[in-house]
Each structure stands twice: as C-alpha cells, then as structure tokens.
UniProtKB/TrEMBL annotation:
Comment on bound cofactor: Binds 1 Mg(2+) ion per subunit.
GO cellular component, one term: cytosol
Source taxon at top rank: Bacteria
Cleavable signal peptide: none
Ligand binding (substrate): D39, R63, G85, R139
Protein name: Shikimate kinase
Encoding gene per record: aroK
Location(s) in or outside the cell: Cytoplasm
Pathway annotation from the record: Metabolic intermediate biosynthesis; chorismate biosynthesis; chorismate from D-erythrose 4-phosphate and phosphoenolpyruvate: step 5/7
Subunit structure: Monomer.
Location, primary (coarse class): cytoplasm
A GO molecular function held by the record: shikimate kinase activity
GO BP term, pick one: amino acid biosynthetic process
Catalysed reactions listed for this entry: shikimate + ATP = 3-phosphoshikimate + ADP + H(+)
C-alpha cells in the first residue's frame, strides 16, 4: 500500500481496555513488525505518566501531545501502532492515520473494557462507570467511521484475534 508518507502503518483503535497493546505486541511479533503505543510515546516525550498529564495539564494538553506523537510516526516505516482510546476525539488524528496507513477497530464489549479499566491505573474520570459508559457510546460511531476494517473481538481470546488479523 502506498500512502502519502509511504509509511504503511497499521493502527489499532478502540476503547480503553480492548487489548490493543497486547494484540499489537502479539501481531507485531507474528508479522515481524515493530509495535509501539501512542501513550508510551507521549509519556516518553513528556516525562510524566498519562494520569499525571491529565491531572496536572488537562486533557487538551494530552490530546496535543498525542497528535504530535502520531505525527512523529510519519518518518517511520511499517509499524503496528496501538492508539490511546481517545485518539478519535481529535479529528486531525483520523486524517493523519489514514495518510500513514490502515486503521483497524477492535470492537469489544463495554463490560470487558470496564473489567480491564478496574484493573489498571488510569485517568481519574474513567473510574466512574457511568462516565465511561457515556464515552463508550459517544466513541463507537467515531471508531467505526475511522476504521478501514473492524474486528469483532467479543468473546474471543487473544489467539482467536491474532488469527483474525492474519
Ligand atoms: C484514553 C485512553 C488511554 C490513554 C488516556 C486517555 C481515553 O489509552 O490514552 O488515558 O481517552 O480513552 P488506552 O486506550 O491505550 O488505555
């Protein structure tokens, strides 16, 4: 595939807790592609955890950092990129991803996401299940619109989903 920047990346998008990072790691290993995580890029460049950035600098600042992390991938080749769950909240990010490759939406259940969220240290406003549920509903159409391909990951193990990706 020839994209504007010739990068040919694969972006995993989906709600927090959908297993994007684990899957990117598995599938990356399978296909000998390097995998990276937009949250990790932001943390590395900023020197603060995601939660800290949200708490001290606010979501808008986090979104700016997220967009510049995405832009930094224009000079790379053939990555598997696990995107932060809110990547679709910033319209230019969707454009950037399409310029650099293909978007795969991992569509899971809200219940599974919530279970994962409870287990992880995440931004404070996700600790309210009501708020998380609203975000889930708000974002679903955004993910679907941004996706070149949607993978239904409900009731599937990582092995099943890795197989779907192949
Ligand atoms: C966010 C999801 C997180 C992280 C940040 C904001 C969101 O990423 O970017 O906490 O708004 O859904 P993961 O989906 O990788 O956990």
């Amino acid at each position: 595939q020839h994209t504007k920047h010739g990068c040919d990346h694969i972006f995993f998008i989906g709600f927090l807790g959908a297993g994007k990072s684990t899957l990117a790691r598995n599938v990356g290993t399978m296909f000998k592609r390097r995998f990276i995580d937009t949250d990790r890029l932001v943390v590395r460049r900023c020197g603060k955890s995601v939660t800290e950035i949200f708490e001290t600098e606010g979501e808008d600042r986090f979104r700016e950092l997220e967009t510049s992390a995405l832009r930094s991938l224009q000079s790379e080749r053939s990555l598997l990129v696990s995107c932060g769950g809110g990547i679709v909240e910033t319209p230019v990010n969707i454009e950037l991803m399409h310029e650099m490759g293909t978007c795969v939406y991992l569509e899971g259940d809200f219940e599974d996401s919530i279970r994962q969220i409870r287990r992880s240290d995440t931004r404070p406003d996700f600790r309210s299940p009501e708020h998380a549920a609203r975000l889930f509903e708000h974002r679903r159409p955004l993910y679907r619109q941004a996706a070149d391909l949607t993978l239904d990951i409900r009731n599937k193990s990582f092995e099943d989903v890795s197989y779907l990706c192949a």
